[in-house]
């Protein structure tokens, strides 16, 4: 882990305490309970998709105002940045929400603006496009980078891109997808 040169992070539930109540968001948007919100939206006719997108954007911006750092997240980012490593964000949220969240946490200066990717800058996870874009920009091989997240989409995206993967979650629900598993960012900092 100490040899990695590129660190790509999910945001909600990884660097921040989980704040998205996805069942409530689905209800507010009128998305079926079992459906992935972004996949459901993508299948809608243009006018409906644009209206739902605007509604989802407002929900995310509202939620961003109350964001809290996950245990050890700020220290982890500061430590990696201080070592001169490449840092990126790959989130299914809006880029503006990600930037606002990073600013609220006090670590926006640790990320190059072009290395904060939201759902409009790259295909949403589990698609590997965002990781591939960052690796190309950083001129790194997939094995030199890790995708860090709290959900299987993060791990699946990392695997599909050929990168290493780290699950940040109390339980290792996807052991076959995670190269490393830690309970939180504080534990990750201790290992890297």
Q: Strand share of the residues? A: 5-15%
Secondary structure: helix percent: 40-55%
What overall form do the CA principal axes indicate?
Answer: globular
**CATH fold annotation of the largest domain:** Rossmann fold
How many β-strand stretches? 6
Summarize the main sheet: 6 strands, parallel
Protein name: HAD family hydrolase
GO molecular function: hydrolase activity
Organism: Halopseudomonas sabulinigri
Pfam family, one: Hydrolase
Textual characterization of the structure:
- This protein has 2 domains: 6-18 and 68-191, 3-Layer(aba) Sandwich (Rossmann fold); 22-64, Orthogonal Bundle (434 Repressor (Amino-terminal Domain)), CATH 1.10.260.80.
- It has 192 residues and is an alpha/beta fold.
- α7 (152-161) links the parallel β4 and β5.
- α4 (73-82) runs parallel beside α8 (185-191).
- The chain has a 6-stranded parallel β-sheet with strand order 3-2-1-4-5-6, sandwiched between helices.
- The chain contains 8 helices and 6 strands.
- The chain has helices at 22-29, 37-42, 46-64, 73-82, 95-105, 129-138, 152-161, 185-191, and strands spanning 6-9, 86-90, 116-117, 145-149, 164-168, 180-182.
- The mean pLDDT is 93.
- 36% of the residues are buried.
Describe the structure in brief.
InterPro entries: HAD-like_sf, HAD-SF_hydro_IA, HAD_sf. The chain has eight helices and six strands, in the order βααααβαβαβαββα.
Helix-strand layout with pairing:
Layout: E1 6-9, H1 22-29, H2 37-42, H3 46-64, H4 73-82, E2 86-90, H5 95-105, E3 116-117, H6 129-138, E4 145-149, H7 152-161, E5 164-168, E6 180-182, H8 185-191
Parallel strand pairs: 1-2, 1-4, 2-3, 4-5, 5-6
Helix pairs in contact: 4-8
């Amino acid at each position: 882990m100490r040899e990695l040169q590129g660190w790509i992070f999910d945001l909600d539930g990884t660097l921040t305490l989980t704040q998205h109540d996805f069942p409530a968001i689905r209800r507010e948007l009128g998305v079926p309970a079992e459906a992935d919100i972004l996949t459901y939206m993508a299948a809608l006719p243009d006018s409906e998709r644009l209206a739902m997108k605007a509604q989802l954007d407002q929900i995310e911006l509202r939620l961003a105002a109350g964001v809290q750092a996950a245990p050890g997240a700020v220290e982890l980012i500061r430590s990696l940045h201080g070592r001169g490593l490449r840092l990126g964000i790959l989130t299914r949220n809006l880029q503006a929400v990600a930037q606002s969240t990073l600013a609220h946490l006090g670590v926006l200066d640790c990320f190059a603006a072009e290395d904060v990717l939201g759902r409009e800058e790259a295909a949403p996870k589990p698609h590997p496009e965002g990781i591939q874009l960052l690796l190309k920009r950083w001129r790194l091989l997939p094995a030199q980078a890790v995708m860090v997240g709290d959900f299987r989409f993060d791990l699946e995206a990392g695997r599909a891109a050929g990168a290493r993967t780290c699950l940040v979650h109390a339980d290792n629900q996807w052991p076959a997808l995670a190269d490393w598993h830690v309970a939180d960012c504080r534990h990750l900092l201790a290992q890297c």
